Amino acid sequence: MTGLRLPDELAERARDILAGRVQPVPARDAATVVILREGPEVYLLRRKATMAFAAGAYVFPGGSVDPRDTDHAVAWAGPSPADWGEVFGADEAVARGLVCAAVRETFEESGVLLAGPGPDSVVDDTTGDDWEADRLALIDRSLAFADFLAKRGLVLRSDLLKPWAHWITPEIETRRFDTRFFAAVLPEGQRTRDVGGEADQVAWKRPADAVELAHEGKIFLMPPTYRTLNELAACDSVEAVLAARREIVTILPRVVEVDGEFQLVTA
């Protein structure tokens, strides 16, 4: 069993947690979305070096669940929150929040919106000053996601999301997330844009190319992103990704001590 060697500051915290001197912080519910387009290629953002969590890492769009994401007022089409709860082993309220967070955060961080006027349609353009004003209002939480959809007469399209994985941040971290991963195809007519905020660079990359860049030390990938990209690299088309059979198993990397050295392992 091999793992990732912990830096000294995390090794010390791991020692304290294993000894019971320090309690792990709770993990916050979060969602992240792999946006796909033909190639297949995935949309990645590089988090600013000043960010408190995953600074400098290339990640998929996503973030924490806002308490208002569980609002029953959110217009909904596709598999129900109860259905999603069964997939992810969560209660209905948590599942509702996760799906809403997935759609909301994707729009906030890429400009892509998985919603439409009806259950069989999707918006084809989210550019323009009015859309940008709404996006910024969602980010600063002055606008609730349910109100955003209602104002525009839109329904969330949960059927456009595919469940992919479930990762929980290791207990040694001071910021922890209980994250469900989704995959979704870039809707026809929509396009991603550099929307700033937590990222200083965005890029479309083939999964295998992103993994290779990480091997070469040219980009930094967190373990969940790295594994997801490796899994996606086995698919030769967007259709293959959507058709892939996924068993959602919770992955919580743990710390082990090997010859006096602390390592993080996922198996």
From TrEMBL:
Residue runs in coiled coils: none
GO molecular function: hydrolase activity
Essential cofactor(s): Mn(2+); Mg(2+)
InterPro entries: NUDIX_hydrolase_dom, NUDT19
UniProt entry keywords in alphabetical sequence: Hydrolase, Magnesium, Manganese, Metal-binding
Domain Nudix hydrolase as annotated: residue spans: 26-227
Protein name in the entry: NUDIX hydrolase
Organism: Nonomuraea guangzhouensis
